[in-house]
Amino acid sequence: MFFTLEGIDGSGKTTASKIVVERLKKEGHDIILTREPGGDHIAEQLRKFILSTDNSDIRPWTETMLYIAARKQHVDTMISPAIKSGKIVICDRFMDSTTSYQGYGRKLDVDKIDKIQELLLEDNMPTKTFFFDIAPDKVVSRVNNRGELDRLEQEGLAFQEKVYKGYKELVRKYPNRFVTINADQVQEKVAEDLYKEITKVLK
Ligand code: TMP
C-alpha cells in the first residue's frame, strides 16, 4: 500500500500524518512515513539545494527536473523496496506536488510533466492520495509565522492560489485516486478524518 498526502503549504498534512502514523504503528501496522523532496541522504541534499533562497534564479524546468530526480532516487532506494516488502508507505508529498506547484503554479506544460513522471515512476503510483483542502488565504498567516521561509514558501499567496487551483483540477481529473480531507478544522479532527480514510482502504 502506498499513500500520498498533498496540499498547499500550511495545510496541516505533516502534523496530521505524524499523529495518524503513531496510531497505526501502535495498532501493529508495519508502516513508514517519509517526505518529499527528501527521503534518503541524496534526495535530502537535493531538497536543501532546491529550497535554498540562494537559488532564487533557478529556471522552472530545472526546478521541476530536480524535484523529479529527488523523487526517482527516493522511489528506487526507499519507497519501492518498502512496498515490495509489504510495508505501508505514507509519503508527505509526491508526484502531484510537481504537477500542482510546477505545472499549475509555474505554468509549465502539465502533459509534459505527466509524461516524464509516468516514464520514471512506472508502477510506483499511489494507491490513494489524500488532498488536504483548505483555502490559501486561511493559511497564509500560519506559513508566514514559520520564521525563515524557504524559497517556495516565499512565493506568497498568489502562487499558492494557482497551486490550490491545480490540486482542485487533479482531484476532478482522478476521482478514484484522490480523497479530499477537510483541512479547515482543528488539527485533531483533521487527523481523525485522515485516520478514518486510511483505515477504510486498509480493511
Ligand atoms: P514541504 O514544505 O512540504 O516539505 O515541501 C517543500 C516545498 O516544495 C513546498 O513549498 C512544496 C514544494 N514542492 C514543489 O514545488 N514540487 C514538488 O514536487 C514537491 C515535492 C514539493
What does the model show?
- It contains eight helices and five strands.
- It is an alpha/beta fold.
- The chain has a five-stranded parallel β-sheet with strand order 2-3-1-4-5, sandwiched between helices.
- The longest helix is centred in the middle third of the chain and has 25 residues, at 60-84.
- The protein is globular, with a radius of gyration of 16 Å.
- The model has no long low-confidence stretch (mean pLDDT 96).
- Thymidine-5'-phosphate is lined by residues 9, 35-37, 51, 67, 93, 97-98, 101-102, 152-153.
Q: How do the strands and helices of this protein lay out in sequence?
A:
Blueprint: E1 2-6, H1 13-26, E2 31-35, H2 41-51, H3 60-84, E3 88-92, H4 95-105, H5 110-121, E4 128-133, H6 136-144, H7 157-173, E5 178-182, H8 187-202
Parallel strand pairs: 1-3, 1-4, 2-3, 4-5
Helix pairs in contact: 1-8, 2-3, 3-5, 4-5, 4-7
What structural keywords apply?
203 residues, alpha/beta, Rossmann fold, 5-stranded parallel β-sheet, 8 helices, globular, binds thymidine-5'-phosphate
CATH architecture group name: 3-Layer(aba) Sandwich
Cofactors and ligands present? thymidine-5'-phosphate
Structural Rg:
16 Å
Topology pattern, helix = H, strand = E: EHEHHEHHEHHEH
The CATH class, by name, is Alpha Beta
Share of residues in helices? 55-70%
CATH topology: Rossmann fold
CATH superfamily: P-loop containing nucleotide triphosphate hydrolases
Mean pLDDT over all positions: 96
| Largest sheet properties | 5 strands, parallel
Main sheet strand line-up? 2-3-1-4-5
| CA(first)-CA(last) distance | 12 Å
Number of strands: 5
| Structural class computed from helices and strand pairing | alpha/beta
Work out the helix count: 8
